[in-house]
Design brief:
- By secondary structure, this protein is α/β, with parallel strands linked by helices.
- Helix content is 47%, strand content 20%.
- It contains five helices and five strands, in the order βαβααβαβαβ.
- It has helices spanning 18-32, 47-56, 60-89, 109-119, 141-149, and strands spanning 7-11, 35-43, 99-107, 124-128, 154-157.
- The protein has a five-stranded parallel beta sheet, sandwiched between helices.
- Helix 4 runs parallel beside helix 5 (141-149).
- The longest helix is centred in the middle third of the chain and has 30 residues, at 60-89.
- The radius of gyration is 17 Å and the shape is globular.
C-alpha cells in the first residue's frame, strides 16, 4: 500500500543543530510536496520550581504573566530563528509558503511532539540527535522518547 506524506513535523530545540534539521525537513518537503509544521517544545517547570514560584509570588495574575512570558519568549526565539534561517537560505530552498504553521508547546517535549503530530495529521517527524562527539550516534532523551511514542516515521538528523 503506497504511503503519502502530506505534512511534516520539524521539531526544533533551538540549539546549534536546528539549521540542519530545518534544512533536511525542507528538502524532504520539496521532494514529497508536503507542507511543514515547525514546532518547539518547552519543557515544563519542575514541581519544586513551581512550588517555589507560588510561595514567593503572592498574586496568581503575576505568576500567570510570568508563565505566559516564558512561552512568549520561546515563540519569539523560534520566529527569530526561522526568519534568520530564511535570510541565509532562501535562494537554495523551497519558498516560505511550504511552512504552514509554527508553534510552541509546553510539557514533556517527547509527549508534546508526538501529540502534536497526531493532532495535526503529520506523516513524519524530523528531529535532531541532540548528542555531540563520540556519543553522537545515539539519540538524546527527547529524540528517544519521540521514537518510542511516535506512530509515524521519525527521521533523526545527526549534527554536521
Amino acid at each position: 500500500m503506497p504511503v503519502s506524506i502530506s505534512r511534516l513535523l520539524c521539531c526544533l530545540g533551538l540549539k546549534d543543530d536546528c539549521r540542519q534539521v530545518l534544512a533536511h525537513t525542507l528538502t524532504l518537503a520539496k521532494a514529497t510536496g508536503a507542507e511543514v509544521h515547525v514546532l518547539h517544545a518547552v519543557k515544563s517547570l519542575s514541581d519544586d520550581v513551581m512550588h517555589t514560584l507560588k510561595a514567593n509570588i503572592g498574586e496568581r495574575a503575576t505568576l500567570d504573566d510570568l508563565m505566559e512570558q516564558r512561552l512568549r519568549l520561546a515563540r519569539e526565539r523560534l520566529d527569530e530563528f526561522v526568519e534568520s534561517f530564511w535570510k541565509e537560505n532562501e535562494s537554495c530552498l523551497p519558498g516560505r509558503e511550504i511552512v504552514t504553521a509554527q508553534a510552541v508547546v509546553e510539557g514533556y517535549p517527547a509527549s508534546e511532539i508526538t501529540r502534536y503530530a497526531v493532532r495535526h495529521d503529520c506523516g513524519m517527524i524530523i528531529v535532531a540527535t541532540n548528542k555531540r562527539g563520540f556519543a553522537s550516534s545515539y539519540a538524546g532523551r527527547v529524540t528517544k522518547g519521540v521514537i518510542k511514542r511516535a506512530s509515524v516515521p521519525v527521521v533523526v538528523v545527526p549534527p554536521m
